[in-house]
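Project standup — Tuesday

K.O.: blocked on the structure for the chain from last sprint. Re-posting the sequence here as requested.
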Amino acid sequence: MNNIVVYTAIFGGYDLPPKVASDEYVDYILFSDRPIEAEGWEVVVVEKKFLTDSAENRYYKMLPHEFFSKYKMSVYIDGNIDIKLPISGFVSDILLSSDMALHAHHRAASVYDEFAPMVKYSKIGVTDAIKFYKQQIKYEEDGYIDQSFVEANIIYRNHNVSNVAKAMEFWLSEYSNGIRRDQLSLMYSLWKFSVSYNVLSPSMARSGSGYYSYRFHKKSRKKIIKKIVTRLFLLPIAVLISQAANLYIVVKRFKRRGVR
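H.V.: unblocked you, prediction finished:
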């Protein structure tokens, strides 16, 4: 058996199976709630445990140590990420110096930079915007200072390392009890459990260069209508919330540093 597993989790037909490059040192495993024709993948059909497809995906995405104890390294990819080239050598190299690696976000430098685009593109609404800032304020008060922002669509892990497993379980808890955008609590979880990680350059998946290429997720009519409503009516409200919360966080930082 190989030391590296590449896996994805597709539920409710949200994505078509990714295309993958043949790699003799990698096992490809796809979790799903239904049989899928997926060239290059071992499809594992599982019984659903959660009410939503996204919650089901996050369970497998965040807890590889629960399923892959026999593998040393794992790579999670979203269902819309194709692998164009063999990646075993690349994965082995980047996980020598740290226990996790993630690609820098293609646009945002921090969670706050990403806030307005998330509302604009209907990834969160006003209720989630409020929840998002409550969550970030809690992180700041715990002593965490936002330093980087990453994509969570490709994740490299030495998943059996103890503090990595604990951080991933904590990440799932933060996601389940907070805003349903998983990258917002990821870096805090790694900080909380002192996980060593590298932030790699952006994956270039959107441009199709490098190891990966990107496909848009399948969209339902309901999601398209929601996006239009959000852009027209809710973005201005969310931006006001953003400005107020940013001011609050700045004040809290100065107070914590003893500046009055």
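K.O.: great, moving the ticket to review. The first helix runs from residue 53 to 62. The mean pLDDT is 83.
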